[in-house]
């Protein structure tokens, strides 16, 4: 997998409590502002500029780097984890997940998660009509 060029836009479903919690966690750890979260469940989100349908965005996690390189599913997590120093747990996970056996298992696990994700609890505490998260410093 080619290394991403940062900043990395991470397209997540803000209405999915698991997805939003995960991305919010990464944003809190991202002290170099390498990650930019984009809530695809927001009524203002327009997928047209990315030439990716909303259905495809909703099907799996997407990340797009500074050069327009698109990462999907497990590759998105690998790209996200590369935003962190290699000495951290995320940096280590970014290297480990590229090992063939680990990568295969991760892809199977993600495929299963993607199938059950639509049935997971939704966020219901959204003040502005959208459940987006905000990067707080």
On the 0-100 scale, what is the average pLDDT?
A: 91
What is the number of helical segments per DSSP (H or I, 4+ residues)? 5
Largest sheet, described in full? 4 strands, mixed
Beta strand count? 4
- Regions with little confidence, pLDDT below 50 for 5+ residues: none
Helix share bin: 25-40%
Strand order of the largest sheet: 2-1-3-4
Q: What is the H/E string?
A: EHEHEEHHH
Strand content: 5-15%
Radius of gyration: 14 Å
How many discrete structural domains? 1
Shape: globular
Structural overview:
- The chain has five helices and four strands, in the order βαβαββααα.
- The chain has 137 residues and is an alpha+beta fold.
- The chain is globular and about 40 Å long.
- It has helices at residues 17-29, 54-59, 74-81, 89-96, 100-116; strands at 8-12, 35-39, 62-64, 70-72.
- A hairpin with a 5-residue loop joins strand 3 and strand 4 (70-72).
- A four-stranded mixed beta sheet has the order 2-1-3-4.
- The protein has one domain.
- Helix 3 (74-81) packs across helix 4 (89-96).
Give a summary of the structure in a few sentences:
By secondary structure, the protein is of the alpha+beta class.
Question: What is the element layout, followed by pairings?
Answer:
Blueprint: E1 8-12, H1 17-29, E2 35-39, H2 54-59, E3 62-64, E4 70-72, H3 74-81, H4 89-96, H5 100-116
Helix pairs in contact: 3-4
Q: What features would you highlight for this structure?
A:
single chain, 137 residues, alpha+beta, four-stranded mixed β-sheet, 38% helix
């Amino acid at each position: 997998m080619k290394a991403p060029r940062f900043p990395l836009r991470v397209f997540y479903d803000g209405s999915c409590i698991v997805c939003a919690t995960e991305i919010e966690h990464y944003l809190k750890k991202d002290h170099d502002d390498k990650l930019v979260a984009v809530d695809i469940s927001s009524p203002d989100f327009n997928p047209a500029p990315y030439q990716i349908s909303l259905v495809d965005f909703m099907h799996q996690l997407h990340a797009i780097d500074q050069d327009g390189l698109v990462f999907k599913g497990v590759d998105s997590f690998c790209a996200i984890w590369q935003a962190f120093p290699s000495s951290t747990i995320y940096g280590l996970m970014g290297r480990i997940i590229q090992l063939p056996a680990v990568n295969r298992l991760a892809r199977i696990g993600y495929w299963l998660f993607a199938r059950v994700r639509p049935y997971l609890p939704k966020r219901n505490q959204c003040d502005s009509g959208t459940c987006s998260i905000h990067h707080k410093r």
